[in-house]
Amino acid sequence: MILYPAIDLRHGACVRLMHGRFDQVTRYDDHPAARLAAFAASGAEWAHIVDLDGAEAGRAVQHPLIGELASSVAIRIQAGGGVRSEDDVQALLDNGATRVVVGSLAVSQPDTVAGWLERFGAEALTLAIDVRPDGDRYVPALKGWTEAATVDLWAALDRYPPGLARHLLVTDVSRDGALTGPNLDLLAQIIRRRPDLDVQMSGGVSGLQDIAEGRRIGCAGAVIGRALYEGKFTLDQALAA
Asked: Which residues are catalytically annotated?
């Protein structure tokens, strides 16, 4: 399982949101390049970087900064936030991102994103579906988590038949930033129903046991944010686990 220590960028600083809300922001670090270098020094091979300003605005805002970060440290970067066009994908790849995260459009414009997968290849893109519980189903949250999709999670995934996509990042927004543990039941359901996808766990990771459980159920990766920033464990400990 690959660990993706996270850097969420807002106004050029490293922050974390609570439950995906832009009015509940904790600012942790004004020097994202130093934070990224520390991740690499601890042995991380990947990092997950999100342009929160872009996600909120619905357009690329901090992609130039993401490019600077990608060129500053020898670490592979999975990057997204504000990706709304093929040009955005190309710009992030040209600036050094190894893989581009496509969020809202993966749900709202699946035909467009399917075309990107065919052009850039399944290894170059991660489909990111952020969900909120709604009774006995999960509904994708769109546009910086400010809107709800008209389809549920399973219908959204059905639009990507086996063989088209490979990487899927799933975040239960109700747990994101809350240190309450990831939604392992949901992740296990996805892995059972879609064994063709490499599923990345995100949202609520609070301890080393969460990482171990994610690996046990078959997650291919885990995005770790607030738990690292607040010292619940170190990246060295997480990698060892």
From this structure: 8, 130
